[in-house]
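Hey team,

Filing this mostly as a record. A colleague (T.K.) asked me to run one chain through the structure pipeline before their review meeting, and I want the input and output archived in the tracker in case anyone asks later how it was produced. No errors, nothing strange. Just documentation.

Input sequence:
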Amino acid sequence: MRKRYLGITLVILGALIMIVSLTIESDHERYIRIFGGSMFFMGTLLIPDYFVSSNKKTENK
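Output structure:
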């Protein structure tokens, strides 16, 4: 469950960093977007981990 919240947090922060980087006019604007995009990507990888590895087991009847 913690990984799910961490993933959601990373997605939100990554999206905010990419949006804010549109207003920044500096030489490092590209690197900021890459950093925000990588945070967003890592967050999307962590979110479905909760659904795939849930502890519920089904019994065959």
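Quick notes for T.K.: The helical segments are 2-21, 29-46, 49-52. The mean pLDDT is 80.
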